[in-house]
Amino acid sequence: MPLKIVFAGTPDFAARHLESLINSEHQVIAVYSQPDRPAGRGKKLQASPVKQLAQSHDIRVYQPENFKSDEAQNQLAQLNADLMVVVAYGLLLPQVILNTPKLGCINVHGSLLPRWRGAAPIQRAIWAGDKETGVTIMQMDVGLDTGDMLLSQAVPIDDSDTSASLYEKLADIGPQALLKSLEQIESQQACPIKQDDDSANYAKKLNKTEALIDWSLAAKQLERNVRAFTPWPMAYFKLNDTAIKVHQANLVNLDNNHPPGTILQVDKTGVIVQTGNQALKLTQLQLPGKKALPVADILNARQDWFLQGAQL
Fold first, then answer.
1. pLDDT above 90 covers what percent of the chain?
2. How many CA atoms within 13 Å lie on the side-chain side of 240?
3. Residues comprising the binding site?
4. 86, 93 in Cβ contact below 8 A?
5. Per the annotation, where are the binding residues for (6S)-5,6,7,8-tetrahydrofolate?
6. Prior bond of 121 cis (ω within 30°)
7. Rounded distance, CA 154 to CA 37, Å?
8. What pTM was estimated for this model as a whole?
9. 10's torsion region: left (phi>0), alpha (psi -120 to 50) or beta?
10. How far apart are the first and last CA of the chain?
């Protein structure tokens, strides 16, 4: 029998999952999303992608600041849902909310749990050099991504993957895994598996301070940082007090004794910089107020900034 579902989510990643539910046999009876936020140059209030999608299908939308009030809790109870599906919602759900739908709440998480729990599992998988990641459909509890696992689906992490491309991969497989998991729940065939807490890592949120390149780190780590921090916060370095973003970089096997941060070579294919271990070739950069460009184009305008032997 099709399930009566309440969906909770906010960004485009969540909207992709909501769309799959709307197009399925199940009935989405209401949607929860974060309150509208100022966005764009005019800082006008903007509805989340999930809210916009729900409204385009005439689905009721609720946007409580949290679920602490009796009003918010009663509102959910009155919906009489079978299940709540949570995808990148942005709010922690208290136990009273987890207990309200008849079959509880499930979450689509962007890692192969318990590998990465927390706010930035996609980025941390690249940052750590993982060879694969995936999505996990999880029965929610009050812990941070600690609930029993219902279903997992893996994808490889390619050497060229950024957080943006990996996000797209997971947004493609997540809805399929969600629908398969709902099928198992509906037919009472779901087999929850407890997580091994000893294998869990905390995927802490990214910040701009972390994105400043520390040339004393190994080139291998810095190359992963560049990909993990794309599209946000973007890895960058400072030259003449100017912050320059790095969009693409490659590991270079060079063995020398120059201090980290020394520019070793400069040509139209890139700027090679010594790191704490081996070197990093910067191939696509972005100057302030400009678009990202290949190094050859940057050198046409700013060759005097990138001189062999200079220190970054």
1. 93
2. 8
3. 111-114
4. yes
5. 111-114
6. no
7. 33
8. 0.93
9. alpha
10. 63
- The residue type found at 187 is S
* CB within 8 Å of 154: residues ≥ 6 apart: 112, 132, 133, 134
65: left (phi over 0), alpha (psi -120 to 50) or beta: alpha
- Answer whether the bond into residue 114 is a cis peptide, omega within 30°: yes
Could you tell me what percentage of the chain is helix, strand and coil, using 3-state DSSP and rounding each to the nearest 5?
30, 30, 40
CA distances from 161 to 152, 213, 218, 248 (A): 20, 19, 19, 11
- Report how far residue 116's alpha carbon sits from residue 76's, in angstroms, rounded to the nearest whole number: 30
Under 8 Å between Cβ of 220 and 214: no
Q: Do residues 145 and 112 lie in contact, with contact meaning Cβ atoms separated by under 8 Å?
A: no
Give the Cα separation of 213 and 276 in Å (integer). Answer: 12
pLDDT tens digits, residue range 176-205? Answer: 999 999 999 999 999 999 999 999 999 999
Cβ burial of 123 (10 Å; 0-12, 13-18, 19+) is: buried
